[in-house]
């Protein structure tokens, strides 16, 4: 096997850091792209564009990410790299999902599933399976969503997942919140927060903190009569409105849910209403 070029090494490193150090990841991807284009390094450019495309999926809009992902797909196709092709197409499916085109996203990603499970490894398999899970979740098919999420978590464990397991814990927490299992959701939130430095991926951290606030809020509602609830959550649809990602979030020290704890978490990580992200997702 030929030795990887400098651009390839930088791009692969960027890919591995997408979920644990987002700023460093995009910086490495940009460096990789510049070096690859300077030296006509097709594999290096493909991986650089793939990393850039996924970063843009997380931090920008799907239409901004799509050109990078399509370019990566063409470059992978030119090399006959099926794993790269599947990852790029999975990214495009995630873009469709984020735009609300759930049927088209599911059709695309299911067409990649069998080959993807054969050629992808670890967090790459987790990414494919989690995308399928997200499509099912969006269609309110929780049983299928859970099945794919737990399979993804098995394929992307902490030792080999490059932080992607934090995304999966976040998405599992989100799904459990929709079903009203707040205790189990809180366990997954804590597992996700333990997997990375929140300061290095503020987007993922903010979604986990949002899920934590919701879980604590609902548990506190169950502990106290509704008439005594005074949390500053005024949205009529708590799962459809959300704070934008915060730049800083302080961990809540309370082990048990309480109103004071919830209000403090809310003030620190949620100041302006927008939309609750569907996570890692996500949207891990």
Q: Find the structural class using helix and strand composition.
A: mainly alpha
Number of strands: 0
Beta-strand residue percentage: under 5%
Q: What characteristic shape results from the CA principal axes?
A: globular
Can you tell me the residue ranges where pLDDT is under 50 for at least 5 consecutive residues?
226-263, 269-283
Give the mean pLDDT: 81
Helix content: 55-70%
Radius of gyration: 19 Å
**Helix-strand topology string:** HHHHHHHHHHHH
What oligomeric assembly is this protein in? single chain
Number of helices: 12
State the end-to-end distance. 33 Å
* Largest pleated sheet: none
Question: Which features would summarize this protein structure in a list?
Answer:
284 residues, mainly alpha, globular, disordered C terminus
């Amino acid at each position: 096997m030929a030795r990887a070029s400098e651009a390839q090494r930088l791009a692969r490193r960027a890919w591995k850091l997408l979920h644990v150090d987002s700023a460093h990841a995009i910086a490495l991807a940009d460096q990789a792209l510049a070096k690859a284009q300077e030296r006509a390094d097709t594999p290096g450019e493909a991986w650089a564009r793939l990393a850039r495309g996924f970063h843009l999926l997380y931090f920008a809009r799907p239409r901004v990410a799509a050109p990078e992902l399509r370019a990566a797909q063409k470059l992978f196709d030119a090399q006959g790299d099926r794993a790269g092709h599947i990852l790029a197409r999975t990214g495009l499916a995630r873009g469709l999902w984020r735009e609300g085109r759930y049927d088209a996203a599911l059709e695309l990603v299911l067409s990649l599933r069998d080959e993807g499970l054969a050629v992808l490894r670890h967090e790459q398999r987790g990414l494919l399976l989690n995308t399928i899970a997200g499509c099912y979740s969006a269609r309110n098919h929780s049983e299928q969503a859970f099945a794919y999420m737990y399979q993804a978590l098995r394929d992307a464990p902490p030792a080999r997942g490059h932080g992607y397991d934090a995304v999966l814990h976040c998405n599992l927490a989100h799904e459990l919140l929709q079903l009203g299992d707040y205790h189990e959701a809180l366990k997954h939130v804590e597992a996700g927060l333990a997997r990375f430095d929140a300061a290095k991926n503020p987007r993922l951290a903010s979604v986990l903190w949002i899920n934590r606030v919701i879980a604590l809020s609902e548990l506190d509602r169950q502990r106290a009569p509704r008439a005594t609830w005074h949390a500053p959550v005024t949205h009529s649809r708590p799962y459809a409105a959300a704070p934008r990602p915060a730049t800083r979030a302080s961990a809540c020290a309370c082990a048990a849910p309480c109103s004071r704890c919830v209000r403090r978490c809310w003030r620190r990580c949620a100041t302006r209403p927008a939309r609750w992200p569907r996570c890692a997702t996500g949207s891990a």
